[in-house]
Amino acid sequence: METVTLVALLIVLFLVLSSEFVNGWTDAPNAIACLITTRVMTAGQAIALAVVMNVLGTLSGTAVAETMGKGIVSTATINLLTISAALVGIIAWGAVAARYGIPTSESHALVAGLSGAALATAGPGSLQWAGWSKVLIGVASAVILGLAGSWIVSRIIIRLAAKRLPGPSKKLFDRLQILSGAFMAYNHGLNDGQKFVGVFTLALVMGGVLKEFHIPVWVILLCAITMGVGTSIGGKEIIGTLGEKIAKIESWQGFAALTGASTTILGASLLGIPLSTTHTIVAAVTGTGMSRSPAVVRWKYPRRIVYASLLTFPLCGAIAFLVCFLLQTLQRLFM
User: Fold this and answer.
1) Alpha-helix runs per DSSP H in the chain
2) Most exposed among 41, 81, 151, 244, judged by the fewest C-beta atoms under 10 Å?
3) What b-and-e string marks burial along 308-335, b requiring 16 or more CB atoms within 10 Å of the CB?
């Protein structure tokens, strides 16, 4: 391997792991935010649960990783420069979004960044509809199924537990919410954690380390641990009041939201569909709030998520396109 290629590969791999770390820092804790807001677990306990279950989830499958690594853009038409431009685009868009308080999805940013950089490298022929169709299905299912699933579970609970004493019912749903929180964190790893596994493997193929696209166990383990470290370090700072911002929820609603969201994510993961776990849990909390009354939902927060989705794909893709075009121009001038 040439020195230039090796250096480029190491830079790209570092950027991928950095993105996975940030994913663990800012996104994974959303999986257990309901446990904090309903005071079922302390922040430290919930973060420890998230770390363990996210790692286990990332180690449990490769369907989403394969979609991200070889289903979104054609591996025959891109190179390491394309991947690096995509990752720079993700980081740049994340900085802009943070500056203006736009709640973004790293999943959507990753897809948009890869696509924008690939367009600059090889044009529209580099995009693959098979993978993009899964992305679009994921966008719809995160909102529709997440909301509907939690609403249905909530209504069943209301019917079954309406005549039960509050004390025993709360203790029961406290325990059930811990189980559903663990399941949610596991499924976050199975879907979100897998995305950067796919990009890491793609970089190894582009760098000539792997002859063809197949995901080594050590790559999964490395990315899983990186995400887990990010969650353990940054979780306390960014676990917010997910339930309190969208709708004030109780233990039984936390269980309903986590069950509806995690079931949606599990189904998507098994089918290799990458979706936004953040959007799924936000939709699920909205659904359980609506089960009591639509009036209890603070609709400005779900609306912000929708607006962010509409902005992320074109703007993050455009940034990655421009970065890739600039890097290609510099490469032609100096190499």
Assistant:
1) 3-26, 33-37, 43-58, 63-70, 80-99, 106-122, 129-161, 166-188, 194-206, 217-238, 242-246, 251-270, 277-290, 300-334
2) 244
3) bbebbbebbbebbbbbbbebbeeeeeee
**248, 87 in Cβ contact below 8 A?**
no
Closest alpha carbon to 46 in 172, 149, 169, 177: 177
Residues pairing with 115 in the sheet: none
Mean pLDDT of the chain: 84
The conformation of residue 295, written as its DSSP 8-state character, comes to G
What pLDDT is recorded for position 166? 56
DSSP 197-209: HHHHHHHHHHTTS
Measured on CA atoms in the order 145, 146, 149, 155, is the torsion positive or negative? negative
pLDDT at 243 over 70: no
Residue 127 β-bridge partners? 73
pLDDT at 229 over 90: no
| Predicted local confidence at residue 241, as pLDDT | 44
